[in-house]
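#lab-general

N.A. 3:47 PM
ok so I finally got the sequence cleaned up, no stray characters, all 865 residues accounted for. can someone with queue access submit it? mine expired

B.Y. 3:52 PM
send it over

N.A. 3:53 PM
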Amino acid sequence: MEENAAVMLNGAKPKLQKKYGVSISAAAVDLAVRGLKPFASELYPEDGPPQKCVRILEDACKLVQTKFGNFGDEIEFNEKVYELGRSVVELIELYRDNSFDSRFWVDRLRSERDSASIHMNDFITRWDFIRSPLFGDTSTENFRSLRDHAASFNWTETNLNEVVGAVDQFLVDTRRSQVLRFKSLLTVEACHVAEVISRLTDVPLTQIIPSNINNHKKKAIEMTNKRVVNQERVVNEIFEILASKKPIVTKRPRGSFLLVGPTGVGKREIAKAVALHWYCDASRLVEIDMSEYTEPPMKSSPTYDLSESWSKSKHQHLRNRLNEVVANRPYSVILLDKIDKASFDTVTRVLLPILSDGSAESVDFSKCIIFMTSSVGSDQLVSSCACYNRDEVRWKRFCSNPLEFYKNHDCTFKDSDRARVLIEATKIIGADLLLSLDKILVVGMFHNKMAVARLLLREIIRENYGESLVVHASNAALDLLFLRARKQRLGVGGKAIKQALIKYVISPLSAANLLSNVFVCVDTFVGTSKLSFRAQPHGRSAADLYFKFKAGTFDIFIADLKMKMEAVNKIFHLRSEFFDLSESGQSLSPLKELTLETCDRLLSCFMSPTPQLVCVDKEVAPYDLPSVEEKLKFKSIYRSLKRKKTSIAKATSTIVDVLVEMSDSSFDFSNSPRRNYMFEGLNQKAKTKLIGCLSESLGDSFFTYIKLDENYQGGKEGKKSLIGKVKDNPCMVVLIDGVEFADVSFYKGLLKIFDKGILDNVDFRRSIIILTSEMGNKRRIAAAFFKDRSISIVNQGVKITRFRTELLYRLDGIMFFDPVKPENGGIHCVHGNSYMKNSQMPLSTFLCRLFEARFSRSPLLPFYI
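B.Y. 4:20 PM
back already:
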């Protein structure tokens, strides 16, 4: 049988290659001959085995041709473009934060950014050949010659041989050129044959092509750990069992697992990830809510007969349901949710035979994977021993030697968390069923809530907006959402976080009617429990930004690539029509219009100029640095200020010291000192003295002062003035008084300066920006840094406008002055990185408390900026 199929395939191979313009590999032929045996009965039942092999191979040729015509993996490419843009904008918001949760997410973003950029670069390299002429320098002449010949020739039945010969030769030449140039893209491999078989039989690709099971396991583990946070041990154990060899004769499932843990820790997500990464399709997951099979009334009740009848019907209903799922899709992942809620009899009678050996079942369960989930015993994961508090004797023993007490006294809490959970699970589910499972896994609560929230936010945004929107939630915003979830008793797991995201983030986004291609940053107004949304369009594509292409270059390049691809696809269409008409014996006259259209498209594309990817460096205006005399003068001023003990002199000396470093022509921007500050705790008198000291020390050439107030609306003019000052002197010290009053234009300009160091082609990387505000809670500042709890200065009754917390994360330091004596007292500088090393409190919480004004009536900035 195989020999006949091989002979027929070898005869059909040249015809298929010529008809579809592809090359067929030996591995594809071999799989079509030998690999179809397990699935022969399900494929084309009307054909014999040899004909089935030919049809499978022909479908694989069509698949390769279709993929080539659709850019092959264009969908994946667009996903990578979106992923690159998302990772770049999120990194800008997070890379300064040194907290553990943020570092975890930043490392992930960098990995995604690098992976996406490599994929995009490979895609461009692979498809760039399409933009060059098919026949080298003679392409245009070949296309024009065929077009003229086809247009001038009389397409009659008696005179077709000459023009048909010309078309045939053109197709032969183009096929030779295409296969040579796109060999990897136009070659039918075993994977294409397997994909065709998979579509026809619903068998996963990984089960059709023999592959290295360890590589498949490693990849599945890696991808699943990206979807589920802090569950590496559980994920590893699941895939270890799935990768192990099973007895061939048994009908029991490929894997059976009980996942025990609190609600919202990712049990369902683990099962979904197994379906996606082990069986290549998330739709293979089938969920059954076992609470539908809850225990009926007690048998001692008058309704015993009714209960017994109910039990029998429920047993049969569950059995039929499982049989139907596996009969329709043998490679299914079945999730039996809340198994502890189901009737003990139902679970035992239906599931025990399936999980034991499956021999009593009419349906083969050997290809499916079964997950059961339960929260029974999950309270044992957070419980701890309190035996020392039972009586006075135990208390004395505990106080004398706590370690010895815990070691020797009799208590179930001395067992591991898993052991205590198993004890509770056995009481509810039964020992027989637990023993029949491959593994019982305890899924503990994740500790990185930030990562879970951001993964859920991605998923929700993808479901509702596709790839048209990128939404980032700051640490401060997420801390606020966690607090609201706790206050409303939603819980602490993933489900509670998802509910909070939908209520407080997605609902406002839906009401805002945002346009596509927009980045939204969700943050808080500093010191408040109010969310703020900043929406900004992507002015420049992520690829241009990351690869440093000239603005718009990447999009033009891809558009030109698609246009040329559509022209080349006309050749495939012409070839298909030519061979169909030739084999059917029909007239070839209809080819005239198609031939002319194909030549016109090819001439139009390959005669037009080809856009290039142009890389450009940052365009900044030239500037001059301070002279040697000016540097010496600053050093002398610095030494003079250091001898003074006032807080104004200390702050000014810090600024002058940084200015000296910035003035050095060999200054390394990658290892720059702290240069952007916020001064807090100053009263008006101290602020006036500070401005005077800076002006006197630096002079008008190196210092400028910008005053903002509640009536300030001159953002564009203020930004223009700021740019002019820094353009004249790149080492300018800029003091912006009252940053909370900045309007939209000025605020966006500040963000660009802090994020990119360049604004309107003017380099701000050597400048020093100082911000002041009246937002700090002076009582808390005094208590936190200056140990003064008697201060009565509070922002009570003061009308305060607030900026977003994101601004504080972009600063290199916040300098707090003693609110009691800001002119002559002490100063304390907080840097995000150094703070996180010495404190267990999240930086966002710390800053929120320092800027919280409990008694203020706080008018807020516009909801969207």
